[in-house]
Write a structure and sequence with these properties.
Layout: H1 7-20, H2 23-31, H3 39-46, H4 50-62, E1 66-71, E2 74-79, H5 84-96
Antiparallel strand pairs: 1-2
Length: 110
């Protein structure tokens, strides 16, 4: 039986939607599904500057989706809730079932 949606649930989904609305943030979340990473490792892997990565990680922390754990001079980032990784996997499955041309820059779905 589905959980009754509350304002807390609605807010959590809105934060997830906000995070996923940016391609870099989405790529960060997908990268963190498999293992924690440092900002510099994420920046290098995703091909963005360290400043961009810092801004995106701050947003994801603010949304409550990632946490940072200091380790000496480095900080390791991971998904804030272990259930987020399988949820992202499920969303990827849904995306694969949809026309990839839909809702892109040249979308004519509307």
């Amino acid at each position: 039986m589905p959980t009754t949606a509350t304002l807390t649930h609605t807010s959590a989904l809105a934060r997830l939607g906000h995070a996923l609305s940016d391609e870099t943030r989405t790529r960060v979340l997908l990268a963190l599904r498999t293992a924690p990473a440092t900002p510099s490792d994420l920046a290098d892997a995703l091909g963005v500057s360290r400043q961009v990565m810092s801004n995106q990680l701050a947003c994801l922390r603010g949304c409550g989706l990632v946490t940072g754990e200091p380790d000496g001079r480095r900080t390791w980032y991971r998904l804030a809730d272990p259930r987020l990784a399988p949820a992202l996997d499920d969303l990827l499955g849904l995306v694969l079932a949809v026309d990839p041309a839909c809702c892109g820059p040249d979308c004519t779905c509307a």
